[in-house]
Amino acid sequence: MSQENDTKTFRYPLRWRIMDALEAALDVLWPRRLSPYSGWALIMPALLLVGILVLGLFQIAESSLHVLDRSTFMPAEEYTLANYEMVADSATYWRVLWRSLLGAGLTVFFTLLLALPYSYIMVRTPSAAVRKALLVALFLPFFIGQVVRAYGILIVLGTSGAVNDVLGLFGVEPVRLLFNFPAVVFGLVQYMLPFAVLMLAPALTAIPRETETAASSLGANWVRTFWHVVIPMAKPGLVGAGLVVGTLSLTDFAMPAMLGGGSQDFIANAIYDQFFRTADQGLGAALALLLVALGSILVGIVIAVFGAGTLGMGGKK
Amino acid sequence: MNQSPSAGTMQAMRGEPPKVAVRVRDVTMDFGGGALAVDRASFDLETGRFLTILGPSGSGKTTLLRMIAGFQKPTSGAITINGRAVDATPPHRRSVGMVFQRLALFPHMTAAENVAFPLKMRRFNPKTIPGRVREFLDLVKLGDYGDRRINELSGGQQQRVAIARALVFEPELLLLDEPLAALDRKLREEMQLEFRRIQHELGVTTINVTHDQREALVVSDDIIVMDGGKIQQHAQPVDLYRRPDNPFVAGFLGVSTFVDGEATSDGLRAGGLTLRGTHATDISEGAPARGAIRAEQIRIDADPQALAGCDTAVPGKIHDVIFEGERLLYVAALDGLPGVEFRIYHHDPDAFDLYDIGAPVMIGWNARDMKIFKSVA
Ligand SMILES: Nc1ncnc2c1ncn2[C@@H]1O[C@H](COP(=O)(O)OP(=O)(O)OP(=O)(O)O)[C@@H](O)[C@H]1O
Ligand SMILES: [Mg+2]
User: Fold this and answer.
1) Which residue numbers delimit the ABC transporter domain (chain B) (predicted)?
2) Domain B7-242 is of which CATH architecture?
3) The whole model's pTM is what?
4) From atom 28 of ligand 1, which residue's Cα is the shortest distance away?
5) Could you tell me the domains of chain A?
6) Cα B38 to middle of ligand 1, angstroms
7) Which of B22, B69, B95, B118 is the most exposed place for a label (fewest CB within 10 A)?
8) CA-to-CA distance for A46 and A1, rounded, in angstroms?
9) Residue B351: pLDDT over 80
C-alpha cells in the first residue's frame, strides 16, 4: 500500500501532534528522572493558594488580639482577648450569629426541597426540549449575578412592585414584603437553587433507571420509590449540595444587605461594618475567625455523620 | 403464529382444563422506528409452568416481558394475568416479580433489607416479615449473608438476592430478563439448575428471557422462539429441537447446515445431487426449497460400507477439522455441491483425528433428519 493511501485511511490527528510537541517540551523542562515528584509539582499551585489563605488567617488571628485604641484610631500594642469578650457579651452579635445559622439552615432545607424535583425531572424527562428548557432556566440567573438579582427582587417584591399590584387587584392593601428575614431567605434560596441542582444532577444520573423500575415491580408507588430508593441513593449529592449551599449562605453578604435593609445582618455584614465602617480591625478579625470556626465545625460534623465517602471522595466512613 | 401443541393435548389427557396464568393476545409494540418491536404476539401460559422466550438480540424479548410486567403499554393487544385484564394496572399493583438483566438491587440496603423491601411495600404484617425474609434467604442458600451490603456479595450471590427479592412476596408470576447473561459459563449453568430447583419447589409460573439456546432447553417446560418481533414457534423443548417449524428455528437451536435447491417428493435436488429428506412444511414438487440438517445427525466415514444404512450417502472432501474438546467438528463439502459447507459433529473417542484436511470421505444421513422447508422469498 502506498503512503498516500495510508494517510487517506488514517490521518494522524492534530490533537495527537500537539500532545507530542507538549510532551517533548515537557521532557526538556521536567526530565524523566524527576517524575517521582510530578505529583507534588502538580499540586504545588493549589498548595500555594491554600498557603496564602493560611497566612492571611494567621494575620487575622494576630490582629484579632488587639483592641482599637480610640485615641489614635489604631490597633493598640498589647495582646488581649477583649475583642472576643466583647462579642460574647453582646446580645446583638449573638442575634446575628443565630440569624445567620437559622438563615443558612432554612436556605439549605428549602433549596434542597426545590432542587431535588427540579434536577430529577431534568435528568429523567424523556423530552430533550424539556431538559434544555430546564437547563437554560438554570443558567440564565448565573449570568445575571447576585446584586442585579437582588435588585430585581427588590423591584418585584417592593411596595409598588408586581406582587403587590396583583394583591391590589384582590383588594389587599400593599404589604411590606421586603426588609425582613423571610425576604432574605427567599433571596438566598433563589440564589442557591442553581448550585444545588447542578450538584444533584450527576448524583441522580448515577441512579440506574432500572432500580426505580425494580422498586415499582416490587410494589412501591412513585412516592415510596422516591423516598426509599431515589433519596437514599442520591445522598452523596444531597450532602454535597447541602454543604455548599449551607456554607455559601452562612457567609453571604449581598442578600442580607440588600433584602434585609440593614435590619437583617448576617455575620459577613457585621464583619464588613467593623472593617469598613467602624474601622475596628480587631473586632472584625475576631468575628471573621468565629465565622471560619463555625463553618469548619459544621462541615466537620456533616462529614463525621455522613462520611467522606458520601461526598464522592471514595472510601467508607 | 404457532399454537403450543401442549396446551390442547395435555388438556385432553387430564380431562380438565388447565389453568391459564398468562394470556397474551395479538400484543404489538410500535416504538415508531419502522419495524415493530413486537408484532402480534399471542400465547397462553399454564399455571406453574416455566416458559422461556428465546431469540437473538433485538428480537423483542425484553419489550414483550416489560409489557407483561406493566412497564410499557402495548400499542395494541391484550394481556390477562390469572383471568384479569391488566392493561390498566400499574406495575406496583400487579403481582409480578421480576429479576432484571442488571439485577437492579438496592445498593444502600443489605441483602436482607433488599428481600424485605417488597414485603414492606406490599404491606405484609410486620411481624411476619423477618421470618419470611429468613425463609427466602435460606431458599437461595444465602442464610448467612443477610447482613451483607450488596457490594460485599459476589456476582452469583447478588443473583440469588435478586431472585429472593422477586419471589418473597409470592407473586402470581415471575419474570426473568436474562439475569444470567453477565455470569461466566460455569456459574451460569449452576444458576440455571438453581432456577429450575427453586421454580419446582415453589411452583411459581415463570417467564424467562434469554438468547442462550442451551439455557432455554435446560430450564424450560415451554419455549417460544422470537425473531424480528414475531413468535416463530411455541413448543416444548424436545419438539422444538426435533421438529422446527421453519429454517430460522432450525438454525437457531443447535448447529445446522442449510442446502438450497428444489423440492422433490422425498427430498431436495441441489447441484445435480438428490438428497433425501422429509417435508417439514407443505411444499409442492419442484418448488424452491431449503433443507436443514443438524451437525450431530450427519455421519462421516472413509468406508462407503459403513454408511450402507443411511438413506443418503454422497462422496465429499474434508475442508477443516476443529477440536472442541468433547467432540470434533468436521467442515466438509459434497463433491457435487462445493459451495455448501456441511458441519458435522464426531463423537467417537477412538476415532479422533481420523481424517485430514482434503481427505475424501463419504457423507451420509437419514431421510427423517434432513428437514425440507419452503424457501422464503
Ligand atoms: N424504548 C425504546 N424506544 C425505541 N425502540 C426501542 C425501545 N426499546 C426497544 N426498542 C427497539 O425494539 C426492538 C426490540 O428490543 P428488545 O429490547 O425487546 O430486544 P431484546 O430481544 O430484548 O434484545 P436483547 O437480547 O439484546 O436484550 C429493538 O430493535 C430495539 O431497538
Ligand atoms: Mg433484552
Assistant:
1) 22-253
2) 3-Layer(aba) Sandwich (3.40)
3) 0.81
4) B58
5) 2-37 (no CATH), 86-312 (1.10.3720.10)
6) 9
7) B95
8) 51
9) no
